[in-house]
Specification:
heterodimer; A: 122 residues; alpha+beta; five-stranded antiparallel sheet; 34% helix; 31% strand; elongated; B: 161 residues; alpha/beta; six-stranded mixed sheet; 4 helices
Amino acid sequence: MLNDNYTSQSIYLDQAGRVIFSCDQLFSATTLSPEQLMDQFPLVMSIFPSLLTTPLSRDTITIPGVQINEPPIIGIFDFHFSVFGKTNTIVHWQIQDLTRRYQNAQREQQRLHNRLLDSHVQ
Amino acid sequence: MISRKVILTGNFGVGKTSLFNRFLYNRFSEKYLTTIGVSVDKKVVEIDGVTVNLILWDIAGEVDQNKVPHSYFLGSSGVIYVFDVNRKPTYEHMERDLAYLEEKLPGVVIKIVGNKIDLLDTDGIASVAKELSRKPDYWTSAKNGESVEDVFVSMAASLLE
C-alpha cells in the first residue's frame, strides 16, 4: 500500500451499477442513480460489463492515473476494482486521490518529452 | 444506445490528445502538454440511424506499446493507433506495436492514423507512406481538423459491423 497521505473513497456497486454503499469521502455517490454515476464516470461505464464477465476481474484491477477535469472530482486518481460473489455480484470501486504525486511525475515527464521533441526538431 | 470503448494509443507527442480534443470539443492548442495516465470522455455519433456512444480513452504516449498498463485495454472494442508523420521514431516500430496490440486485443478494430500532415506537403506524405509497413487508414491534422471526424465516425461504423 502507499505510504504517503492520500484521500480515498470506497463505493460498492451491484450488478446494475446501483450504489449499495459509499463512504462519500471525495464526492457524494450515495444519492446518484446508476445512469448518473455512469454518465459522470464514462471510464466506469466502459469497463463495467467487462468487470462482471472477465475472469480477471476476480483479482483487483487497477486503472492508474485517471485524469478528471470536471466535477464531481477534479485531479488525478487511481481506480481499483474488485469483484465479489458469483450470483449476487458486487463491485468494490476504490478511488485514490494521488493528484499531487502524479502532478510531480507529470512535470518530470513534460521536461523529458520537451527535451526529446526539441532534439528532434534540431 | 450502444456503447463502445475506443483507446487512442501511440508514441508520446504524436497528437493523441489533440485528436481527442478536436473531435470531442472542437478545440486545438499549439502547446504540447504531456498526458499522464489516461483521460476518458464520450461522444454520441449516429451511424445509419443507429446511435453509438463512443467512450474514448486518451492514453499517455509510450515509446513501446508493451509499456501501456494492461488494465487500460480492458473492455476495448477499438484502437486508434496514432503516429506523427514528421517523426520517424513514432512509426518505425509500427509493425511491432500493432502485432502486440493484435495479440493483446484479438478481434478489436484497429485504425492507423498519421497525424500532423499540416507540416508536410503532398510529396512529403507520399515519402512517409513508402516507409510504412502498413497503410494508414487516415492522414489527419488535429490542428486544422482535416479528416479527424472521419477517423472516429469510421471507427463507430466499423464497430457496428
